[in-house]
Amino acid sequence: MRKLISSLIPVILIASVLLDYKDSPVSCLFSNLIFKKELSTNNLRSGIDNYSEKKEELSLREKLRKEKKSLAGKEDDPFNSLKFRYDMLSSNKEIKNKSPDLQKLRSDAIKYAMENFEPANDNPLATSWSALGPGNIGGRIRSIVIHPSTTSHILIGAVAGGVWKTTNGGLNWYESETDLNPISISTMAYDPSLPTTVYAGTGEGWGNSDAVYGGGVYKSTDFGDTWSLLASTSGASASLFRNVMKIYVDASGNIYAATRDTRSKMGGPGLTVSGGLFLSTNGGTNWAKISSTTFTENYFTPTDVLPYSTSEILYAVNNNGITLGGIYRTTNGGTNWTLITSGLPTADYRRISFAQDPVSIDVVYAVFQSTDVTSMGDGGLKGIYKSTNRGVDWTALGTPPKIASTSSLSYLGTQGWYDNVIAVDPFSTTDLYVGGVDMMKSSNGGTNWFQLTYWHSFYGTPVVHADHHVIAFDPITSGVVYSGNDGGIYKSTNSGVTWTSLNNGLPITQFYSGAISRTGTAMYGGTQDNGHLKLNAPGSSDWTMVVGGDGGYSAVDQTDSSIAYEEYVFLAMEKTTNSGVSWAGCTSGLTDAGSSTASLFIAPFAINPDSSRVLIAGSNRVWVTDDRAGSWTAVSDALLGGVKISAVTISSVPHGLRAFYGTTDGKVFVCDSLNITLGTSNTWLDITPATSSGAWVRRIVPRPSDKNHILLCYAGYNTTPPLDAEHIYYSTTSGGTWTDISFSFANVPVHSAVFDGGDMSTFYVGSEIGVYRTTNTGTTWSLFSGAGMPAYVPVDELVMQKGTGYIMAFTHGRGAFLYTKPLPVQLVSFSGVAIGNSVTLSWVTSSEINNSGFEIQRLKTGEVNTDWVKVGFVVGSGNTNEIKNYSFEDNNLTPGNYTYRLKQIDYNGNYEFHGLNSSVNIGIPGKFVLNQNYPNPFNPETVISFEIPIESKINITVYDITGRLISKLVSGQIYQAGVYQVSFNAGNIPSGVYFYRLESEKFTETKRMVKIK
Description:
Shape: elongated
Strand content: 35-45%
Distance between the termini: 112 Å
Oligomer: single chain
CATH architecture of the largest domain: 7 Propeller
Radius of gyration: 33 Å
Largest sheet: 7 strands, antiparallel
Number of strands: 71
CATH superfamily of the largest domain: YVTN repeat-like/Quinoprotein amine dehydrogenase
CATH class of the largest domain: Mainly Beta
């Protein structure tokens, strides 16, 4: 037995395992707490189901939390974070009160998509996705596996990003080849008897809101390069392995899997739930359930497992308030289990995590999460315990100090249900590490503790991202420690004294939103627990966190890209006017900002694409500003019954402003002529589709070129797919009538949509299972992700860049992606050169198909309320495979920066945009200049150009050789500083010598010109 366990010493990997979050705390307003984080989006209803039953308890927690003051930035709110995504995904009048199995619904939707939609690899248009990163930010990691002999080979499991591998110690990462459609990796372990064999469990069953759906256990035989799904964990057995909480492989290759179904403790007495503790002795071919019915019949959630052999096992089960959880022990392979109570708590705890001494294998450690509300311990630390006889008896260890910023919170914060890990250093077994919000360490076996990391920098401890889920040690080199947390993976080479991020090239960030400027020079995105990010530069995959905490919606001013807006949560908006260098609140008059009562956790706001001075936001009423968020005005009455606004949009139409909002009960409203000065007296018309499912409205998208055409996206799943449809609606009458175009679509929430820039019947949608495209107004759909980006990743935001027609997809777990649609015209180059007050544009094509020509459009940047204007047209070459050169001259420009684009139009009227990569500057002249006319000599017309350094009153006259006035070309006009030109037509005068004169208050000059026959 000792040999069996000690053979596990080469690597100690403690994977964090979380329990059901049934009575998670209700948060307070964000100005009152401490942590700058959130636990974001998808499935878990655990923590919501008993909300009504726990009102009194939750109210107490709320009161206690409001007594705590924020010392460092924005607060953490696990309950509202949890509630947001679950409510959104389950929002449907048919299923929202039925505890839907969202994981099964998503899996069914993926299966339907695979069987009915054209694969992306068969769609040549879908080969143009490219990753935008972030390649330097990271995302939530719950598992780390280090090769026992080649320690530079490391695997990490991202909860929404799949398996990633490095072969150089984390300098670079690459994604494993796998068909992991759910791409949710919660736990991994290698086989000590054959280290190239690794098992990965999927599904986050922890209770966090953005828990990502699972789908069985995967196996790799080449240390993570390729993976295959174990058939024994799919099909009829799928529900048994929906959420794999912990995978453990012993020295003989036996595999232990602690699992739970999403229905665990959700259904009530009499419901048979699946999950439990399973054992495979043949590499995952077959499994035997070794946990007794005691656990399943009482709606348990396993949190950890530690086997000494197939007979002797320690098993941690959460105490969920329905039955007594705790540490159970069997000595007969699971036939009988004994609840261990010696030295352990008997009440007020839930999640339990294990760690084993790798040298003295009889020594085991356990961390208990507290649920003691009155002592401010809910979600915090109940205690750390030690057993020296394989879990039979336990003693309490010393209590770590409170987090450095507060005297009331343990290192678990208030979320030990979410991040809770303990580990023992294999080279110094008196060195213990515990992780939660922050990491603590003991160097004397748990008697005394000190803070090892802090997620803010001003307490003198290393800056490591919050929420530690896994701690792993290099099995060969002493002092090398790894942490997997909500910010990715970090490494210490000196036992935790200092830490280095290893997130280079690890695009696993979970976006909520994204926005891009008109010219593509500024891109922002709001993320789960990694704040608001800004792309460093076009073409880069590195991003900068410009605002910390959680990031909600984003918007960029479409005329001045230095201006942008972001939301923390609950509509707490901020604005930058210096390209993200600094941010300030911009909610004057918006009294619902920061209110969890009035606003959704991730509350919607949007900018008017036609006039960047105008923004719209939604709480339980609509807010509008027309001065770039200088002040806000409520323009609708508050909704009743707890209904909130989940989608907003506003745009300019010929008769004024047209605004829409959608609600959490599936309603859609329009104000066709919004007048801000009318405030709440504006008239809103209910235009809800008659067949609305009652799910959250996720997006309302007017077509930029014809705002009467609208796409409407709904969240939620339906009970009888695909007959229910009700996810995508289309209107050509501004919502007067709707057509459900999702009958052939999958039964899956649709988060976002964009119209194609040219084809009126083509549009794209971002869903919970990828990007899809229709070319016939929704009659049929094709999978549009999968080549260049994961096929079935949740896509929370699609954004089309107006300057180019490019599409950005912001995913919840795999970062951002760019789609550059292959064009019928292959543009080799496009450049612009300023000469005086003119710009010469030059472009070259290598091939053209059905090319009618190029419309040249210009935008003067930095000005308010400007838009692209047509300045010319150049005829194309139709169909050709030869190189063609084109040019166009734009004249008489005033000083400023100009951006150009080509609108390439085919013979059918379809078009695409080609953008100029950089702007062209027409500078302000340094002095007065009268240039020689051109041509000279001339007949009959010539051009006279002149330069003015300051605003001036200008006269330009023409005289003959006798001094007789021939013409007044400019007579007392006021000109701003710039370069100008005027034409002189001498068709009615004889040939000869003439003089032209420029006069201003400060300058006079005369030049000679000659007209010839």
